[in-house]
Amino acid sequence: MPTEVAATPEQPRRLGRSTLAVLVGFISVAALSLGTDQVLHFLDVYPPWGQPMYDVGLNLLALAYRCVYTVLGGYLTAALAPRNPMRHVLILGAIGFVLSLVGAISIANMNFGPLWYPVALVITGFPCVWLGGLIRRAQQR
User: Fold this and answer.
1) What is the pTM of this model?
2) How far apart are CA 120 and CA 116, in angstroms?
3) Is 66 left (phi over 0), alpha (psi -120 to 50) or beta?
């Protein structure tokens, strides 16, 4: 006697919305980071573009607001994800990690500032984006 299995309706995959969720998270982090950089360069807090920035305090400032913006990017990605928000956050974190790593490797021998700064971006990016996703998940409960 065949046993019937009750079919549970599965939500259809929404590739467009998934892509948009990750893209919004990525663009928000990039735009806010570069926008803040531009303002700080304009206000002469940072040296002019193209000149190295070795001041530890200024590099810590840049790292701090990039961490905040990365948390926000993870939050936005999780909020916009059509389903499985933490999977979307994981994808955003992986993209950010790869791009940060490529950036750190490519400027390692250039005179842009201390090497610890791009390494710190590589290390902090994934935990920050993950934290943003966790904050969004906690709000939904």
Assistant:
1) 0.88
2) 6
3) alpha
